Amino acid sequence: DVKVTQSSRYLVKRTGEKVFLECVQDMDHENMFWYRQDPGLGLRLIYFSYDVKMKEKGDIPEGYSVSREKKERFSLILESASTNQTSMYLCASRSPSGGAGETQYFGPGTRLLVL
Amino acid sequence: SQQGEEDPQALSIQEGENATMNCSYKTSINNLQWYRQNSGRGLVHLILIRSNEREKHSGRLRVTLDTSKKSSSLLITASRAADTASYFCATDAILAQKLVFGQGTRLTINP
Lengths: 115, 111
What we know:
Chain A has no helices and 11 strands. By secondary structure, chain A is mainly beta.
């Protein structure tokens, strides 16, 4: 069965802290994505990766960076957390077959609160 | 910019009734997908319809796609309380290399 896991369901951090959000998938998918979800704004793409050590900016990359050292793991890094980064963060992975838009599999989400 | 716009933003119906949600988009697409999200959880893929398809069924779900109007609808028949969730359309626009999600429709099924 397909599985995407995220390191934390809930996280509380202080302004200025460096924050790591981890995502692991067990489906051998090459493509992985990080989104944030805010009320009234839907899902917005932060970064994505097509393969190990590859990364592409999404729609809102400012204030974030990512790391993809292994195929199964995609990390989102908040270099210096700010209160406007309080949000729900969702990781997803996708099989590359059939083009860029095939089904994405999502993790359960990490709800981050920055104080 | 958002590719998919959903309508209505919120929908509340009685158990057993049918629920219809609509999605409009702006550019040509390869396919359109519908996802479901239970409160505080990740999204789960429901159904994918390709640009050359007009209608697709999966259990109690029926999806239509009208590429001339750039719109899609999701129909849930014989709704159940467990269908209470948010529903998102996501478009795979040609040359976009990524899915773009709408803001979702919040569906509440009243017992």
